[in-house]
UniProtKB/TrEMBL annotation:
Source species of the chain: Crotalus adamanteus (Eastern diamondback rattlesnake)
Designated name of the protein: tRNA methyltransferase 10 homolog C
Cellular component annotations (GO), alphabetically ordered: mitochondrion; nucleoplasm
EC number: 2.1.1.218, 2.1.1.221
Keywords: Coiled coil, Methyltransferase, Mitochondrion, S-adenosyl-L-methionine, Transferase, Transit peptide, tRNA processing
Domain SAM-dependent MTase TRM10-type, residue spans: 181-372
Amino acid sequence: MHLLNLIRRSAFKLIAPKMTKYGLFLTMPSKISTCGTLRMIYLNKNISKSADENINLDEWKLVVLSGLEKEAFEKASPEEEPNIAAIKEYIDMSRRLGKAAPENITEEQLKKLIEYPSVTSRNKYLAFLASKEMRKNADKLKKKRQQEEREELRKTMDNEELIPKSRLLRAIWDSSMDVLYNWKAAQAMSFGQPLVFDMDYNDMSEREMQNTVKQMMECEGANRKAVEPFHLYYCNFKEDGPYHNEFLKRYGDAWDNLFVTVTEKSYAEIFPRDQIVYLTADSPNVMETFDHNKIYIIGSLVDKTIKKGVSLARAKRLKLATAQLPLERYFHWKTGAKVLTLDQMMNILLTLKNTGNWKEALEFVPKRKHEGFLDPSLQHYIHRQKNKKIYEQNFKKKLLVEELSKKRLWNGLWEE
């Protein structure tokens, strides 16, 4: 027996270094058996201590395949784009490995995912879709919870003891308000002042187009609920274009029922040019008062990079009058571009149309952009200084024109 133990110990000393090299080690059994045979166990940190659990020996294949899939994507050239089946396999692997990936993905999103050139950009887009899906699921749960609360409240109100015997005010339901808003919007299409959205900015990115259409939907909703709505025009609108496709996604069948005039024509072809005023933050002219006889144009674009002069150049090319809101006259403006969203512009114009009060209208400007309203005395001072500067510029231009005309006249006489 002593001889057998000696042989086993010497064999262990010889074998142990080689076995640790390949990730193996030797242990004694938890309960010492009669033969005292040593057991050999594979070193794996993820293995469960319970012997009854099934070990997934194919788990390593997922890791290897995911690495090969990434390598294939990185080596793929733009001409050899991976197909949709490979993309679906890659998404499934990413989800199994615990990475951010959506549970459901549309064919359009798959095609867009294929267009991304690198693995990093694909992973970022998958993370964006996953977060978007999580927000949608959270909204669904919230709506479901609110619906359950309404059902409980309705059951409580069904109790006859809680219902008041007499009511002084009649309940107005949302459907009745929708009928009223639609009637006012229909009247505005016949008698309202036109307000034009220039939809000739089809070169925006997909994210910018989505934000633009979302803001335009808010504009349409605010206009319907106004005291005196505008007659909205969507000019330079291309059928099956980026705007049209995004509107159909969001409105669905309700798109054909909107009280909006949609046309492919330019506003310069529909309205007299002397009545058109293009509102742009880059204009040198400041809007003094709201003119009910003018047709105001708003550029339907949202540019994340703030491309200066795009709408101003368009207005100059068509030889149209331009104007900007008097933000510096009324606000302690902070540093940054004086750019407002489309829905903010709509609310400002609606307030000016119905009240004519600049201070009330400019309440829709976000407070993060300014440090408060200026004192009335400072407002008049700034107004005088700007008028003085404009007068001096016009006077210098007049002198320059007179001097040039004299030179031309003198040159003509000299040639004769």
